[in-house]
Specification:
The chain is an alpha/beta fold. It is built from 17 helices and 15 strands. The strands form four sheets. A nine-stranded mixed sheet has the order 12-6-7-3-2-13-14-1-15. Helix 16 links the parallel strand 13 and strand 14. The radius of gyration is 27 Å and the shape is elongated. The structure holds S-adenosylmethionine.
């Protein structure tokens, strides 16, 4: 909470008007109003405010970004270690969430470590509406986002839904926040599928893509999650739905992508196919239908693995006790291998039963999870703790943290 905000809260708690305060503190009312709107308070005003409201002057100074000399000393002499030194020496401020809850400014100098509050957000399921919680995450702080939001009001009765006609308006402020917290070379994978309304597919996903592009996202690719084991059924005007979209967005043309991490075995076909190569196989064979595509089969000689396609064949989660819409761990796992490295930070703003976090734990990535429903948050935490106990004991793997409930 900054000084301006603190002053407003203090005034409200004592039910004292700005006019009255200006009289009591003997400060110009216009000046006090400017301070309440974000202008930097003088040292004297901080002192007078602390005395008048009987609160800690040191705490108010911190809120105003005016650090005591000992803290300034640490920040300027030990910028790299500043965050951990200050956490230890100022445990009480940190515990109150005052010191590291936002960018720390000291005469224009912002230490890199002080900009990110690892302890508060990292490897936690933050409970709340993601729109609100996201606004508290530092800018450009996550490497990758993967999520499966409620598909409009598909699952009314198990968790809140949004009617299809309001879906885009509901989601856009969230994607705006996601844009803010994602690092410039990061990616966002959105697992979503439009529902059927009145006998036809609604267009909210297509509308959303267009509006996100207008918001500044690049729609790089659409992966298809083919649900290998979907339930049989009959519909008079369509067949059973066996796929969902995984939309890949980025913020700029160049983004981080590690294609080798998701290569697949070539398969047995190559043994017979590559045994006797024809002349055509030795050179680039352009498509006879002028499609512009071509291939040189000989390129695959001696190779064990090939790049996959954009269709992912994965079974849906059958053992999803406690949550009605889980995706399989293999889904976020595939994408986080493709778009992140070990130690990176992965965000899922609709964490549900914690599937993305489990994938992160198993693959040495940090996660930031948000979930509105306390029952699902608890379910997610239980799954994460189990996943941690199943990790092979490797001292070089990322530190095992015990989850503590966190409310925002
Ligand atoms: C499709 S489910 C996600 C399932 C998840 N991928 C899993 O494997 O368990 C969507 C989740 O978003 C949560 N949710 C809905 N609205 C939310 C909001 N505004 N903020 C945070 N979570 C929300 C729901 O409670 C639900 O658990």
């Amino acid at each position: 909470m900054d000084f301006a905000h603190q002053l407003r809260v203090l005034r409200k708690s004592k039910q004292i008007s700005l006019r009255e305060l200006s009289k009591r503190l003997r400060y110009d009312r216009a000046y006090l109003s400017r301070v309440e709107n974000g202008a930097s308070p003088s040292d004297e005003l901080i002192k007078a405010t602390a005395t008048f409201f009987r609160v800690s002057e040191r705490k108010l100074r911190l809120a105003a970004g005016k650090f005591p000399k000992d803290i300034l000393n640490i920040l300027s002499h030990y910028p790299t270690e500043a965050a951990s030194i200050l956490r230890e020496s100022l445990g009480v401020y940190h515990a109150n969430g005052d010191l590291f809850s936002g960018p720390v400014e000291t005469n224009g100098y912002v230490p890199r470590h002080a900009q990110r509050d690892d302890n508060k957000f990292l490897n936690r399921i933050l409970q709340g509406d993601c729109l609100h919680v996201l606004s508290q995450l530092p800018a450009a702080s996550v490497d990758f986002i993967v999520t499966s939001p409620p598909y409009a009001d598909n699952r009314r009765g198990t968790y809140e839904g949004v009617p299809p006609e309001r879906y885009v308006a509901w989601f856009l402020p969230i994607t705006q926040q996601l844009k803010r917290v994602l690092k410039p070379r990061g990616s966002f994978v959105l697992n979503i599928k439009e529902r059927v309304v009145n006998g036809e597919r609604h267009t909210y996903v297509l509308d959303l893509i267009l509006r996100m592009r207008a918001q500044g996202w690049r729609w790089v690719e659409e992966y298809i999650w083919h649900k290998k084991n979907c339930y049989p059924g009959y519909w008079p005007n369509r067949f059973r739905d066996a796929w969902e979209r995984c939309l890949h967005f980025s913020l700029q043309k160049e983004f981080r992508m590690f294609q080798d991490a998701v290569m697949v075995p070539m398969g047995d076909w190559r043994v017979s196919r590559l045994r006797n190569l024809s002349d055509t196989d030795q050179r680039r064979d352009n498509s006879r239908v002028q499609s512009g595509f071509g291939k040189r089969i000989a390129n695959w000689l001696g190779r064990e693995k090939a790049y996959p396609t954009n269709v992912l064949h994965m079974a849906t989660e059958c053992a999803n006790r406690g949550h009605s819409a889980t995706f399989p761990v293999a889904l976020p796992e595939w994408f986080l291998k493709l778009f992140t490295k070990s130690g990176d930070v992965v965000l899922d703003p609709f964490m549900g039963s914690g599937t993305t976090a489990v994938a992160c734990v198993r693959n040495g990535r940090h996660f930031v999870g948000i979930e509105i429903n306390p029952t699902y948050r608890k379910l997610a935490e239980d799954r994460i703790n189990i996943a941690r106990t199943q990790l092979p004991t490797d001292p070089h793997r990322h530190a095992t943290l015990t989850l503590q409930p966190q409310k925002i």
